[in-house]
Design brief:
- The protein has about 550 residues and is α/β, with parallel strands linked by helices.
- It has 14 helices and 20 strands.
- Strands 12-14-16-20-17-15 form a 6-stranded mixed sheet.
- Strand 3, helix 3 and strand 4 form a beta-alpha-beta unit.
- The two termini are about 80 Å apart.
Length: about 550
């Protein structure tokens, strides 16, 4: 046994021979003994020897401070068991120890066995006292914490009877917390909550779960209903049986605020819905007016008004799609392009039976760019069905759209579609032309850096449009001079449609690649023989 593992005793005895004999006896039984021969020396030794575990204090210490006074002074500064020794057992001598300590009084003539038993008993009493003091400290701390907590904290037994409730729980149910122990928590719960609470208590008491949460309404003593969020856990059993600790929080105001917010959101949704309907109706009205006025005029005025109505139709479709999908800032082209092409063809302005093929890969484009893209597609499809198939009963158009990598979008020699489908050569004598944003307007800054989208989305989008019609003039898509006007473009033979598409491509900060004299492609390859090839292809790349 190490020196510190042995119990240390302070033996206070003025008779040195007696002290020496007692010291040898104690050391023989495993104790480490420190000696003091007067009351003053005992006080000093106890102060500078904190490892002392017990004091054996003789009462009569000759002249000077006696043992009871020395013990009193020592106990003012430290908590240590003191056992008194004396050769006198008269009531006066024993009475001098009362009120100082309760760890024992030993008659010096009692013998070795009594001495050792008294020391053992003193240690057990001291340990029990320390445990009781620790329990009392813990209880005081628990009560201090719980009584000052904002949340309600209470203990109930397996039947829901209060064993303890803090101040906040009393405020919750509308009664002083001191009146709650012994009362059932079910007094304050509506009938429809009883089964859920009993089930929660049963699960905890039977250890089917360690913790549980439950939100219920509580009826206060004044009859007011409050929403309470409860978190419960079972505590270790004690002499009173199983108990459950519950921590509760009043969330009535929180729920009321949430309900008000929900009501405001519903009201806002109704207002937005009404606003969307009005905007859509006004746009439809504007389109209908354009179509109506077109019937009052002959060509070319009628054609101009019909084109304007068609462009308005694409904007109405975009607005409606953005609103209905719940994504007002961006949209997948798979949702937008197929109905747009179908809507254009359904307008019934074609001179031939036009068969469309629309292939769209997943690619998300911002709503701002969809407006320009919708007008571009509207213009290209309308131009095909009005002018692409003269004297024919049928024709084909194809729209392909999907994502491309930045390097493919910026390459002037890129293939039209990044897919394994076959690619037809350019018709003999007709080279492809490319019109970029830099070449179309003074205000266009050129292609922008790619938009950083969510993982899995590519930065650039490509839209390919083609038909198998008569084709286009070779100089129709040459870049117009920087700063040139619509009038100047018309003098060069460039149509307004060409001018419009070019400007909108510039607005997209993209490029357009025009390949005249190409036949339309399909899933089975390009239609027609080499001698029959015609039509044109438009490839538009832009940052999505």
């Amino acid at each position: 046994m190490s020196k510190r593992e042995r119990k240390a005793l302070l033996l206070v005895e003025d008779e040195r021979l007696v002290a020496l004999g007692e010291k040898k006896t104690l050391e023989r039984h495993g104790y480490r003994v420190v000696m003091a021969y007067s009351g003053e020396e005992a006080v000093e030794t106890a102060e500078r020897t904190p490892e002392v575990d017990l004091i054996l204090m003789d009462i009569d210490l000759g002249s000077g401070m006696d043992g009871t006074e020395a013990a009193r002074r020592i106990l003012e500064h430290r908590d240590v068991p003191v056992v008194f020794l004396s050769g006198h057992t008269d009531s006066e001598t024993v009475g001098r120890t009362e009120g100082i300590t309760s760890y024992g009084y030993i008659d010096k003539g009692s013998g070795e066995a009594v001495l050792l038993a008294s020391i053992h008993m003193a240690f057990r009493l001291f340990e029990a006292k320390q445990k009781e003091q620790e329990r009392e400290r813990s209880e005081r701390m628990f009560r201090s914490i719980t009584e000052n907590a904002f949340d309600a904290i209470f203990l109930v037994d397996e039947h829901g009877v209060y064993r303890y409730a803090n101040r906040a729980e009393g405020e919750t149910v509308g009664l002083p917390s001191g009146e709650l122990p012994g009362r059932s928590m079910f007094e304050f719960l509506p009938e429809d909550a009883h089964e859920a609470v009993r089930s929660m208590l049963g699960d905890l008491v039977d250890r089917r779960t360690e913790t549980s949460s439950l939100t219920v309404q509580v009826s206060t003593a004044e009859g007011e209903l409050r929403w309470i969020e409860n978190r419960a856990m079972r505590l270790p059993d004690d002499e009173a049986g199983p108990s459950v600790l519950v921590i509760s929080r009043d969330i009535t105001e929180q729920r009321e605020r949430h309900a008000r917010i929900e009501a405001l959101l519903r009201e806002k949704e109704l207002v937005l819905t009404e606003s969307h309907h009005r905007v859509k109706n006004n746009m439809e009205l504007f389109r209908a007016l354009l179509q109506l006025r077109a019937t009052e005029h002959d060509e070319p005025c009628r054609s101009v008004l019909e084109d304007a109505a068609a462009q308005a139709r694409s904007m109405v479709l975009l607005y409606t799609t953005l609103y209905e999908t719940g994504h007002p800032s961006e949209l997948d082209l798979r949702v937008f392009l197929p109905p747009l092409v179908a809507d254009i063809l359904a307008a019934g302005r074609a001179h031939a039976e036009v068969t469309p093929e629309v292939v769209v890969k997943p690619v998300v484009v911002s709503a701002e760019k969809l407006t320009a893209l919708g007008i571009i597609v509207e213009e290209l499809v309308t131009n095909s069905i009005k002018h692409g198939f003269p004297g024919r009963k049928e024709g084909r158009i194809r729209v392909w759209a999907g994502p491309v990598k930045e390097e493919a979008a910026r390459s002037p020699n890129a293939t039209a579609e990044p897919s394994p489908e076959p690619s037809a050569p350019v018709a003999e004598g007709k080279a492809p032309m490319e019109v970029s944003a830099d070449a179309t307007a003074n205000s266009s800054p050129g292609p922008a850096p790619p938009r950083k989208g969510p993982p899995g989305k590519r930065a650039y989008a490509r839209v390919v449009y083609e038909d198998d019609g008569v084709g286009i003039a070779e100089n129709a898509w040459l870049p117009r001079p920087t700063g040139s006007s619509d009038t100047a473009a018309r003098k060069r033979g460039t149509s307004f449609g060409t001018f419009l598409v070019t400007e909108l491509v510039a607005q997209l900060r993209g490029t357009i690649r025009v390949e005249p004299g190409r036949a339309v492609a399909s899933g089975q390859g390009y239609l027609g023989t080499a001698a029959q090839r015609g039509g044109a292809r438009f490839t538009i790349d832009f940052p999505a």
